[in-house]
Amino acid sequence: MRGHRLYCGGNVTKRSIFSLQFLNRPFTIHVETRAQVQIQIGEPVNISWTAAFFPITGQYNVYHTYKVNKTIFQLQNEGILYGGHNVSNKYRYITRPYNSVNISFEIRHTTVDDAGYYAGGPTADSAWSGGGVVLIVSDGPEKVNITPKPSLNKYDQIEVRGGGFVGPFNCSADCNPACNITWQMKHSTRFYDVLSETGTLFQQVGIYMEMFCCVAKWTAIIK
Fold first, then answer.
1. β-sheet with 133-138: strand ranges across
2. Which domain of life is it from (predicted)?
């Protein structure tokens, strides 16, 4: 599974001064304006919400949607079924009694495919009508460090005149296995690699340069 984290930002002002704004922006998956939980790949996570009611008869279904919509388990007054089975290596239901409106379960061995929207109800229509939780699975190093810390103006930007230099700024990330650190420059709608040595940016600025990004990439095998 390949991941990365970016630390970037900036724009060109009308005074032909290159204004570079640093923003710590993680690469995440499936961001929505509902209740959210964010984790790193591989971490277990508890998902919970309060249902409007639990059906007296029938069952309460818990759904997940990311690439496809699917039912991950069904709750009944007496117990739970995970796709027709009594136990699951992936999910563990926590709440007792089973007919409680407090829905809570654990997801184990998380991958990017576990990201998305979780909701429940007697029917799919009732589940997707509102509520539920969005799970965000971060696919990259937990932290990217820029040193020395940039000296920012009142607009949280550093300014370099055209023909001047940005840097030196060193980019590093705490990741295992070791990350591949590169710097990129944004021009129009594309990113281009810029020359850097051992993660250090020292770049002469042109007015066509809109943004610099530190990119930390890793490759991990999820078992």
1. 36-40, 133-138, 116-121, 60-65, 69-75, 80-81
2. Eukaryota
| Burial class of residue 173, CB neighbours in 10 A (0-12, 13-18, 19+) | buried
> Same domain, yes or no, for 111 and 199?
no
* Nearest alpha-carbon partner for 112 in 220, 29, 5: 29
Give the residue numbers spanning the domain of 45: 36-138
Do 175 and 117 share a structural domain?
no
**pTM over cut 0.70:** no
Q: What is the number of structural domains in the chain?
A: 2
Q: Which of 63-67, 100-104, 124-128, 213-217 has the highest mean pLDDT?
A: 100-104
Mean pLDDT of 5-26: 35
Helix intervals (H) in the chain = 124-127
- The tokens of 88 are what? 């699951």
